[in-house]
Write a structure and sequence with these properties.
Oligomer: single chain
Order of helices and strands: HHHH
CATH class: Mainly Alpha
Helix content: 55-70%
Distance between the termini: 82 Å
CATH architecture: Up-down Bundle
Shape: elongated
Radius of gyration: 26 Å
Structural class: mainly alpha
Length: about 140
């Protein structure tokens, strides 16, 4: 999956991640005209790296859950759902993604798990009664 595991403390890798992002080619950005603008550029790059890392964690956890659902393993899917829900709540709490987006994704995952738990029941379509034309006899 890349250089880092999605489990554990990701903050220990943060200095390395920030070095990768901050040491980009400086010709790609417009040069700031003041010290405060320089600081904002640095802060934006750092925050962008952190946000991208958090979003990648969300995608990895959701992918792990969906693979467990496709495999049909209910116990593993439940465990992955708890993990995905926790990371979604954490990322939404930090406002990296909107809380409504996190809620929508959690709902989607829960629906998939419930569909896996319940046996697939085919709903029989009732044949509709033909409408009888009542003739009016006088």
């Amino acid at each position: 999956m890349g250089g880092f595991s999605s489990r554990g403390n990701w903050k220990c890798h943060l200095p390395f991640l920030l070095k990768l992002v901050i040491l980009d080619d400086p010709s790609e950005i417009k040069l700031p005209n003041s010290k405060s603008a320089e600081k904002r550029v640095r802060q934006n790059k750092k925050q962008n790296a952190v946000n991208n890392h958090r979003k990648r964690l969300v995608k990895e956890r959701m992918r792990e859950f969906l693979s467990a659902v496709q495999g049909g393993d209910v116990a593993k899917a439940e465990q992955q759902l708890r993990s995905a829900t926790a990371i979604l709540d954490r990322v939404a709490g930090k406002r990296t993604i909107h809380p409504n987006t996190a809620a929508r994704r959690k709902s989607l995952l829960a629906r998939k798990l419930n569909a896996l738990r319940s046996p697939k029941v085919e709903t029989a379509v009732k044949p509709s009664k033909p409408k009888s034309k009542a003739s009016k006899s006088a």
